[in-house]
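sry for the spam today, last one i promise. struct tokens for design, 680 residues
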């Protein structure tokens, strides 16, 4: 397309990166152009209506519009610009997710759209040329229709009066249509001159009718070029002339044909867009019958287009049981209010898989505002919903650390939260003790297993711990590991087993596992990825709860230790005061002048006993302090409890006999249990 003056382009784009990309692509092309840039719909309106700072702005030849702007969006922006300046062609710039909206806006009058991922000079240049030419054709068609209307009113269409094809008279518009002068056509057989041979039979058949309804043939211009022409004929009778004359009206329909071809191409383009879109697009009439469904319905639901057409209630039937009431309410509201609506619900695919669907529908009316039905789109949002659920689960697990009493209840809560996304019927969390090589199960919910601990050995759990990798254990995979000697069959056999390592700072501390004893399809690789995703938060939460419990245990131990120390000191205080009172008391009694020697000796003996007793107590205090300070080397050795009891009995027996006290003992501990390890 040759341009003798630059094309004035109004670019409406708020994103600096996209703006630069579009401008550079336009400049790289062969079009002479001047680009005028505004950032939103308000500025675009001011520019077109020459308001505010754009009082001197020129009228653009074409508008390139981003359909997502900060101050308006989609239909609102487009309608505002298109309504104000309908003669200016508009090219839309959109992302992949906006293709459906772009299609709708093109149906409302936009010339073309370009996906942001495909912006290139060749594509933009082609789109601009296409839009300008198509708009020009559209404008010409409108002018042509107006002209034809005026000519018809003034009887100045291409009119031919002929007898058996010989021209009796022609209108000026007829002559110009074929690029002839009027005098060049009078008296000539215009059927042979102006119509290709292959249409002569058609014309002969039509002239036999009194009134030949409009039909289309090709015409030959003076330069030999062909063009489509519509003919409508009628036999007439002229007074005083005995001739079978006919009048024929010729209409050049080149522009109409071109527009029809453009429309067909455009419709084909939109059909391809619809049929290859990921979203499921459909049209249902006011009685609920399916008029159209895009092929995406099969990919989304597993059911074919024919199945939906044959069973108009199929979508309601495959709706997930818990969401049926939601859909029924939506359908009733759609019929009664005839307003657009959107909602999210679940469906069960033909394969049995349950997925989340985002649904949007809009009522359709004809020119007389008669309700024709609704147009809807459905999109698979399972991944998005799953992501939202995962984030909720992670948040709840994080908070549960502070709201659960112990580790077992925390893991039970984790199982319940994960159960909202995957099947946790058979679920356990295992913690590994490297010193004992024992795997403990602080929580287990299982249909067949009830163990709370087991040797690590060659179990599947220990395999995950050793490899530090997740295991998607199908029955076949587990058999393969058993044949290689990596694992050994332990406990009830599973149809599928999934284990994911729990790590803290790169160290595997345990495993979180789920399994099914009956259904090999109970889990898929997405469930493994889910457990891997949440395992970090689970590991952190378990470790925090373990640390919290250890701190509480240490606090209880410290509190008990303080209590025992206080009791010990109170007891020691008593033990010291008692002999001290004896020493002081009997020392005073020794001062008596008339005290006999026998009494003096008795008092001295009591003082010696009290002194020895207090010295022993002080020695015990010193030993205890040294033990607390870690300065005493405690040596553990084997001690026979029975022998110690016999020794104590023999040691104290003389004292007991002196006081006439019966002193007995009995060794009730069997000899094999009488040996203990302790300090001496």
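last one done:
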């Amino acid at each position: 397309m040759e341009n003798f003056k630059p094309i004035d382009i109004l670019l409406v784009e708020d994103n600096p990166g996209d703006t630069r990309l579009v401008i550079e692509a336009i400049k790289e092309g062969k079009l002479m152009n001047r680009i005028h840039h505004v950032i939103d719909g308000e500025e675009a309106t001011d520019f077109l209506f020459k308001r505010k700072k754009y009082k001197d702005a020129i009228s653009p030849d074409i508008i390139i519009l981003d359909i997502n702007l900060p101050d308006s969006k989609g239909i609102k922006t487009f309608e505002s610009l298109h309504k104000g300046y309908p003669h200016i062609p508009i090219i839309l710039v959109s992302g992949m997710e906006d293709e459906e909206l772009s299609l709708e806006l093109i149906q409302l009058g936009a010339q073309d759209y370009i996906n942001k991922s495909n912006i290139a000079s060749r594509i933009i240049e082609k789109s601009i040329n296409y839009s300008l030419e198509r708009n020009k054709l559209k404008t010409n068609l409108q002018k042509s229709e107006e002209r034809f209307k005026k000519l018809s009113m003034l009887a100045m269409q291409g009119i031919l009066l002929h007898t058996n094809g010989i021209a009796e008279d022609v209108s000026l518009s007829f002559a110009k249509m074929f690029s002839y002068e009027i005098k060049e056509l009078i008296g000539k057989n215009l059927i042979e001159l102006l119509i290709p041979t292959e249409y002569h039979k058609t014309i002969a058949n039509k002239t036999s009718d009194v009134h030949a309804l409009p039909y289309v043939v090709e015409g030959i211009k003076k330069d030999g070029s062909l063009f489509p022409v519509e003919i409508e004929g009628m036999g007439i009778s002229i007074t005083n002339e005995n001739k079978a004359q006919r009048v024929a009206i010729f209409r050049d329909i080149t522009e109409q044909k071109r527009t029809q071809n453009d429309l067909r191409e455009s419709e084909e383009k939109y059909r391809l867009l619809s049929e290859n879109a990921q979203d499921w697009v459909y049209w249902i009439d006011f009685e609920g019958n399916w008029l159209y469904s895009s092929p995406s319905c099969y990919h989304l639901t597993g059911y074919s287009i024919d199945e939906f057409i044959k069973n108009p209630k199929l979508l309601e039937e495959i709706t997930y049981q818990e969401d049926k009431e939601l859909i029924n309410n939506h359908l009733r509201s759609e019929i009664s209010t005839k307003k657009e609506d959107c909602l999210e619900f679940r469906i069960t695919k033909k394969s049995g898989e349950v997925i989340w669907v985002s649904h949007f529908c809009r009522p359709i009316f004809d020119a007389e505002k008669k309700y024709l039905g609704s147009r809807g789109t459905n999109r698979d949002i399972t991944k998005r919903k799953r992501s939202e659920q995962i984030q909720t689960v992670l948040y709840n697990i994080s908070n549960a650390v502070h709201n659960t009493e112990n580790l077992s209840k925390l893991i039970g809560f984790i199982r319940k939260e994960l159960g909202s996304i995957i099947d946790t019927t058979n679920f356990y969390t295992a913690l590994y003790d490297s010193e004992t090589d024992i795997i403990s199960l602080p929580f287990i919910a299982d249909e067949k297993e009830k163990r709370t601990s087991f040797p690590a050995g060659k179990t599947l759990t220990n395999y995950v711990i050793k490899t530090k990798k997740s295991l998607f254990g199908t029955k076949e995979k587990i058999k393969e590991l058993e044949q290689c000697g990596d694992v050994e069959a332990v406990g009830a056999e599973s149809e599928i087993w999934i284990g994911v390592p729990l790590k803290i700072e790169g160290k595997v501390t345990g495993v979180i596992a789920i399994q099914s004893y009956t259904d090999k399809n109970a889990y898929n690789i997405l469930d493994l990825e889910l457990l891997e995703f949440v395992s970090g938060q689970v590991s952190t939460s378990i470790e925090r709860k373990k640390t919290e419990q250890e701190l509480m245990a240490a606090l209880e131990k410290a509190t008990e230790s303080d209590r025992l120390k206080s009791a010990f000191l109170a007891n020691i205080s008593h033990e010291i005061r008692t002999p001290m009172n004896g020493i002081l008391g009997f020392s005073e009694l020794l001062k008596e002048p008339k005290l006999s020697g026998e009494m003096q000796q008795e008092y001295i003996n009591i003082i010696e006993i009290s002194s020895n007793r207090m010295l022993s107590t002080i020695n015990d205090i010193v030993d205890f302090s040294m033990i607390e300070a870690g300065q005493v080397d405690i040596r553990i050795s084997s001690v026979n409890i029975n022998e110690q009891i016999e020794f104590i009995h023999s040691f104290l027996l003389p004292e007991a006999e002196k006081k006439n006290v019966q002193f007995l003992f009995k060794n009730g501990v069997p000899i094999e249990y009488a040996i203990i390890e302790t300090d001496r």
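The first helix runs from residue 16 to 28. ok im logging off now
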